[in-house]
Write a structure and sequence with these properties.
Layout lengths: L14 E5 L1 H4 L10 H6 L1 H7 L3 E4 L3 E2 L11 E5 L6 H13 L3 E6 L9 H9 L11 E2 L22 E5 L5 E6 L14 H16 L4 E4 L31 H13 L6 E4 L5 H7 L7 E2 L2 H5 L4 H18 L4 E3 L8 H5 L7 E2 L2 E2 L7 H16 L4 E5 L20 H5 L46 H4 L6 H14 L9 E2 L6 E6 L3 E6 L5 E2 L3 E7 L7 E2 L3 E7 L4
Parallel strand pairs: 1-2, 1-15, 2-5, 5-9, 9-10, 10-11, 12-15
Antiparallel strand pairs: 3-4, 6-8, 7-8, 13-14, 16-17, 17-18, 18-22, 19-21, 20-22
Helix pairs in contact: 6-7, 8-10, 12-15
This protein binds 1-deoxynojirimycin.
The site of 1-deoxynojirimycin has 9 residues, from loops.
């Protein structure tokens, strides 16, 4: 059924599927996923039962950071297709009942963006340079970076340029790779440009935007060194209060379009801050990263669920629930580790011992847990197939700039970006046409058992579990509201009701526990025997009336 444009509140309880375009499906046979590939697989997504897709960047880009380095915000990269492929995709998605959210990357662009090239050419003090953060270096010959800010990818956040006359010159700020110069959001030209870019895509029918690093746009006046600030001072480049004006202006633009156009912010901020971004005149939703970061542990997850719901209730925004994305270790691998957080003390965990069978069992239970919570849920491509992190990629094939920039300390994010397996018996597991090039990253041979076609119709598969849960999310009225009531349960068990009739029980402990009284089992992540819920298993129940 086509999208119903009169359902303007669709986003309050939507399930959004993240498409990482280069790894979803290759329609042209060059080994890289693209829009024709995605178009051909839309029926799969519609049948999965999701409400919307979010596409990681599809814009023209030199791909220094897999498209998060944009050279033209109004065009599609030839690797993925053309602008008319994009508009055809939006139309076809709408016809299939899927809304389309696109990534917008406002903090930085590519060093190949015409504005940055013009800034390099124009030289110090020029209005072109004022659109970025250029500064002279420190020290007698300016050879030291202007301050001590670090890049998120490792190393320093400044790069020195060679001036048009060939001399070593100013430095520019890049909170990510040096191929991603940060815009200066104090300049009205930058604000005007992004408002125009939003309209460009809204005019082409997109239903919303995922805002890349939404909390980083504004930098503290004077770009003070961190070392010069008191230890408890707020960060000079994160979560600055002036950023909210930007989103208020964006919200007014989205609201001027029909059909419920929305924003979801990538916001690595604490709960109190998150609340501010989600005020009724700002962003509709923001990613709930504490949930994604938490280990597989009942008490911690319960505390996060409570905190999340309380925080969101104060501003009337729906919560979002996320198990993975293109930046973090896949959930099967995370939950298969003794210490199941994806990063410890801010450092990504690589190649720690993992029990993939345990991880898969927990990921199945985790799917039923997060899909039963009130609000929106995000599914990162391949989660519905039970894919794990590919940790043994040869270093020379890895492409994430993090590897180089961290000096090898962080292997990077390629392991969660490996192309999807569609057909067990086709070359490249059917990622592209049979006669096409091999997928851009090699898939583990063991993914044969994870291919979509072998899972299709197998009632024990992850794919069928997701399909069943997503079907029930649509038919169970109790899952629609914003309520959640904790019910009494044993230690290491989460048991909550939604509405009068629905309950979810998850056993995190090592021993089976008796199922609470119920009228029917709607779906379970593992077989239920003798009325017992086994370890690392979740179940959705029809509650007994008058309980
Ligand atoms: C967050 C994106 O999710 C990540 O993939 C990217 O590298 C950085 N922002 C920089 O744009």
């Amino acid at each position: 059924m086509p999208v119903n444009a009169s359902e303007t509140a669709w986003w309050r309880d939507a399930v959004v599927y993240q498409v990482y375009p280069r790894s979803f499906a290759d329609g042209t046979g060059d080994g890289v996923g693209d829009l024709p590939g995605l178009l051909a697989r839309l029926p799969y997504l519609a049948a999965l039962g999701v409400d919307a897709i979010w596409l990681s960047p599809w814009y023209r880009s030199p791909m220094a950071d897999a498209g998060y380095d944009v050279a033209d915000y109004r065009d599609i990269d030839p690797l993925f297709g053309t602008l008319s492929d994009a508009t055809a995709l939006v139309e076809a998605a709408h016809e299939s009942g899927l809304r389309v959210i696109v990534d917008i990357v406002p903090n930085h662009c590519s060093d190949q963006h015409p504005w940055f090239r013009a800034a390099l050419a124009a030289g110090p003090g020029s209005p072109e340079r004022a659109l970025f953060h250029f500064r002279p270096g420190l020290g007698p010959d300016g050879a030291q970076p202007p301050n001590d800010w670090p890049s998120s990818f490792g190393g320093c956040a400044w790069e020195r340029v060679t001036e048009p006359d060939g001399t070593p010159g100013e430095w520019y700020l890049h909170l990510f790779s040096e191929a991603q110069p940060d815009f200066n959001w104090d300049r009205p030209e930058v604000r005007g440009e992004f408002e125009s870019v939003l309209r460009f895509w809204l005019d082409r029918g997109v239903d919303g935007f995922r805002i890349d690093v939404a909390n980083l746009l504004i930098k503290q006046e004077g770009l003070p060194a961190r070392a010069s600030l008191p230890p408890d001072a707020p960060s000079p480049y994160e979560d600055r209060p002036e950023v909210h004006e930007i989103y208020r202006a964006w919200r007014r633009i989205a609201d001027s379009y029909p059909g419920g156009r929305i924003f979801v912010g990538e916001l690595w901020v604490g709960r109190e801050s998150l609340r501010r971004y989600l005020r009724p005149d700002e962003l509709h939703t923001g990613f709930n990263f504490p949930y994604l970061q938490a280990p597989w542990q009942a008490e911690q997850l319960r505390a996060i669920i409570d905190g999340t719901l309380e925080t969101h209730a104060t501003v009337g925004a729906p919560a979002t629930w996320v198990l993975g994305n293109h930046d973090v270790t896949r959930v099967v691998t995370r939950y298969g580790r003794v210490e199941s957080s994806w990063a410890l003390d801010g450092v990504r965990v690589h190649n720690a011992p993992v029990d993939l069978e345990l991880g898969a069992r927990r990921a199945r239970a985790a799917a039923l847990l997060y899909l039963a919570l009130p609000g929106c849920a995000y599914v990162y491509q391949g989660e519905e197939l039970g894919l794990w992190e590919v940790e043994d990629l040869p270093p020379e094939l890895r492409q994430d700039p993090t590897l180089r920039q961290s000096g090898g300390a962080d292997l990077g994010r390629d392991g969660c970006r490996v192309p999807l397996p569609w057909e067990a018996d086709a070359p490249g597991f059917g990622f592209g046409p049979d006669e096409g090039a091999a997928p851009w990253l090699p898939q583990p041979p063991a993914w044969k058992t994870r291919a979509a076609d072998v899972q299709d119709g197998d009632p024990e598969s992850m794919l069928e579990l997701y399909r069943a849960a997503l079907r029930l999310r649509k038919t169970e009225d109790s899952l629609r509201g914003s309520d959640l009531t904790w019910l009494e349960s044993a230690d290491q068990v989460l048991f909550f009701g939604r509405g009068e009739e629905f309950a979810c029980v998850v056993n995190f402990g090592p021993e089976p526990v008796p199922l609470p009284a119920h009228d029917a089992v709607l779906v379970s992540s593992a077989p239920i025997a003798d009325g017992l819920l086994a370890a690392d298993t979740a179940v959705w129940l029809r509650r007994r009336a008058a309980e």
